[in-house]
Amino acid sequence: MAGLSEGNNLDPWYGHYAARTTGLSASEVRALFAVASRPEVVSLAGGMPFVSALPTELVTSAIDRLMRERGPVALQYGSGQGAPELREQILDVMALEGIRGSVDDVVVTTGSQHALELIAKLFLDPGDVVLAEGPSYVTALVVFRSFQAEVSHVPMDEHGLIPAALRERIAALKAAGKRLKLLYTVPTFNNPAGVTLSWERRLELLEIARENDILVLEDNPYGLLYFDGPPPHAMRSVEKDGVVYLGTFSKTLAPGFRVGWALAPHAIREKLILANEAAVLSPSSFTQLVISEYLSSADWRAQIDTFRGVYRERRDAMLSALAEYLPKLSWTIPNGGFYVWLNLPEQVDAKSMLPRAVKQLVAYTPGTAFYADGNGRNNIRLSFCYPTPEFIREGIRRLSSVITGELELLDTFSQTGPLTRITAERNVTSPPPNLG
Ligand SMILES: Cc1ncc(COP(=O)(O)O)c(C=O)c1O
User: Distance between CA atoms of 202 and 190, rounded to whole angstroms?
Assistant: First the structure.
């Protein structure tokens, strides 16, 4: 067989893959899903929405009506840009975050993940630089890597990405002759950090991007899932030419539909449609039209409110369990979304601690998954979206015992005396000054 001579024992096609696949390694999150799905493990690892909070009859009645009234259309190929009626409704959804756009500039994709892939395909050549928050959404990093781009992480604090740090980084990269293409940001209820970019900083980042000719990729799956009051409006609400905005129904409805969208500047929109057609011909007519039926017949705003209530209760359960069981550590306090970012004592490596955590029946995502540069060693992303409040509490209790055990282990092997004391300096109530 061709290629055998260049192969190895595991994969006879090794050596045949395109160079871009070298970045395609299984993420830490992915490997975890298998382990964490065992029922006895409290998983604080994945970002699965709690879809059981969506009454199934809302979906079945939308499907039923669709099939009775427009079955052949729902089962047919559709437009590469997405169903026009759904694109109109997407404008209503985005209006809740201050965005006014044209239906012509909305492109429906197979989840917002697919929009990330398409934008990367349109803009990234090998060696191009994507500026991104540190930490950043893990599967966006996988996409950028698969187009052989370099990701340069810019530090965040509790108000999101730090503009001065961005300016400095851009200057340094330009001085090194790098091509800067995108600023990728999850400004609202960041995955994984849970923090939200302030309004002032949104304006400042847009200005920096404009001055430096960098396209902003604003990824906003969580913006409508706020707990203590609405977040600042989307960056796209004030800048239409320099921002590609990504939205999705995955978190406010259900991810199984695989329907997301991009709102792109007019010129980019053309190329995006062509890329979408090249990849999938047309996004699923069936799921788009089910969602369209649902949006036109159900009280979807009230349903989002229900989700907010569910996740707020879980966020509260996580924060109070952290305060109770890990009072010496620090973490972020999210006003929405799915995630808390936990700072471990400096000497603890979250990734090497993970097998011991799973043995004690709790799973989390190690911070290194969210950096392209090896950072995040002593950070953990904790998800509060899926387990019940009781399980969250139990999960944090188990985690505290894992961390205590880890510190004792390190103490035993340390030659410099007890390390545990170092953690006593940390402050519970205030978020960490710098997430990087
Ligand atoms: C920041 C971010 N972007 C994009 C996605 C992809 O979402 P989907 O493809 O389901 O729309 C996720 C999913 O967790 C996410 O957290």
Answer: 14
